Amino acid sequence: MVDLLQNKSINLVTGRKVLQLVIDGDSRTPYLIVQENKWFQISDEEQIRKICVEVVNSNPKLVQKYKSGKVKFFGAFMGEVAKKTKQKGNMVLAEKILKELLEKNQ
């Protein structure tokens, strides 16, 4: 499982799910669990960018609040990306892209 995390095949959320399954007695290897559940991390920059653009475009009120200085709303954007990727998105990449999109339009 450490290898899956280190080579960024999965994120921490997925790692926790896999660990819980192993603790609960699942006899499959962590890799097999991830493979059979299609839990590999989404790290394709174009795919993440598309989702981020969609999130920004579909939340104009949040964008307005964020741009007015209420940066705490950034977490809402991150939450939407996580939801759209079913917790499988590379959130480090998503954060970078979201910041870029939100700063570009200021």
UniProtKB/TrEMBL annotation:
InterPro entries: Asn/Gln-tRNA_amidoTrfase_suB/E, Asn/Gln_amidotransferase, Asn/Gln_tRNA_amidoTrase-B-like, GatB_Yqey_C_2. SUPFAM superfamilies: GatB/YqeY motif. Keywords: ATP-binding, Ligase, Nucleotide-binding, Protein biosynthesis. One of its GO terms (biological process) is glutaminyl-tRNAGln biosynthesis via transamidation. It catalyses: L-aspartyl-tRNA(Asn) + L-glutamine + ATP + H2O = L-asparaginyl-tRNA(Asn) + L-glutamate + ADP + phosphate + 2 H(+); L-glutamyl-tRNA(Gln) + L-glutamine + ATP + H2O = L-glutaminyl-tRNA(Gln) + L-glutamate + ADP + phosphate + H(+). Residues 3-102 form the Asn/Gln amidotransferase domain. Transmembrane segments: none annotated. One of its GO terms (cellular component) is glutamyl-tRNA(Gln) amidotransferase complex. The keyword Transferase does not apply. GO terms for molecular function: ATP binding; glutaminyl-tRNA synthase (glutamine-hydrolyzing) activity. Pfam families: GatB_Yqey. The keyword rRNA processing does not apply. Gene3D superfamilies: 1.10.10.410. This is Asn/Gln amidotransferase domain-containing protein. It comes from Ladona fulva.
